[in-house]
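User: Show me a protein chain along with its predicted structure.
Assistant: Here is one chain, sequence first, then structure tokens.
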Amino acid sequence: KELTEAFKRAKVFFPKNDAPQIYFHVSAGANPDDLYSQYKSGADILIGDLVVNKTTYPDAVLVAPAELTFELFAKGGLYFIDDKSGKGVADLAAAPIGKFSPVATTSSPLIVIGRYKNEGKQTEIKVSEMRTRGDVAFMNVKLTATQAAGESGLMSNMFAKSGGDHKSTSVRLQDCTVDNVAARNFVNDVQNPESAPYSKVVIDNCVIELASEKGTYVVALIRSESADVQEPTEFCISNSVIYAEAPAKYYCPDIHRS
């Protein structure tokens, strides 16, 4: 049947030797580089071990970079960023919402996916410290730590748990680029009597740039002795590159950056 329909759509052209030729194309489904079309067609999108599809998350929203706001981040949801040019910037750090920004909710996780793969530069999302109250996941975007207005020096973290949050939640990144040089820690994982730790941190196929100052960490694991139960956090960091802002001058004295 597919071939019959394809022949109906076939086009005839005559090259220089005037011999007629027929060519046709049979579609193989949604564009594999268009993650939103993959989602709409019913395919699974994997962010680490998280399965995103129309059944698990049926209410996806397609947004332009400028439409991505911290109000959306705060309420959670599934968002695809439509930026085929790869030149858009979502500046969430510029919002007048204070030094710390609540992200996601216990009932609605936050999932942000760049729509197009292999289209050059990833859409950049500038963020101040994100205090997560629910599960968060990012795929195919660039995250840039940006100090909130009026603040100076290194901001504390890119991801941290909200104070008083006793629900174990997760952070997942897949196919992302991270500029974390403006923050001390990428993920700050704390357990104390007021807060539960992250249950899971998954980083796969990412490139993460850290500040070169002493005492900066990809994941800072902090456990208070006063906590009733020392809950474990599951870490999975795979196929990723993690490097300091200026590693050569610290580890290779004979090599200097110009």
